[in-house]
Amino acid sequence: MRVIKILVAFMGVLIVAGVALVVYGVSRQEDGGIVTDDATPSVPVAGQVDASSGLDPKPVAQLAPFGTINIDLAPGETLVDFSRQGSEATVRLEGRQGSRLVVVSLRDGTILGQILLVEPQ
């Protein structure tokens, strides 16, 4: 009987220590983690050299100012989402007729195409 009491007390101590370690770990994540001197950005910064491939490092392309790009909206159409990949942007618009994706070149401001998202008839 005495052995069981010792084991239960030991397991209780382990549970309390485990909860304390979890709380410590969560609080440390919220503070931003450990800061080191050799920190590298997780995404390339414009103008940096991408040497992660191990091949011939090339400078990362920097996007030049592209000015104003006009996209004609249908009546009642609104912008829902916008994303950029390289020198192209995708604009998601929703309206009464359904949704559409408009792909725009940020280099010359031209509309490369659009994808209409319609319900099947």
Describe the protein's architecture and organization.
- With 121 residues, the protein is α+β, with helices and mostly antiparallel strands.
- 24% of the residues lie in helices and 29% in strands.
- It contains one helix and six strands.
- The strands form two sheets. A four-stranded antiparallel β-sheet has the order 3-4-5-6, with no helix packed on it. A two-stranded antiparallel sheet has the order 1-2.
- The longest helix has 29 residues, at 2-30.
- It starts with a helix and ends with a strand.
- The model has no long low-confidence stretch (mean pLDDT 77).
Q: What characteristics describe this protein?
A:
four-stranded antiparallel beta sheet, 121 residues, two-stranded antiparallel ribbon, alpha+beta
Topology:
Blueprint lengths: L1 H29 L18 E2 L7 E2 L18 E8 L2 E8 L2 E8 L5 E7 L4
Antiparallel strand pairs: 1-2, 3-4, 4-5, 5-6
Alpha-carbon distance between the two ends? 74 Å
Order of helices and strands: HEEEEEE
What average pLDDT do the residues reach? 77
Figure out the total of helices. 1
What is the multimeric organization of the chains shown?
A: single chain
Classify the helix fraction into a percent range: 10-25%
Strand order of the largest sheet: 3-4-5-6
Radius of gyration computed on alpha carbons = 27 Å
Query: What is the percentage of strand-forming residues?
Result: 25-35%
Give me a quick take on this structure.
By secondary structure, the protein is an alpha+beta fold. It has one helix and six strands, in the order αββββββ.
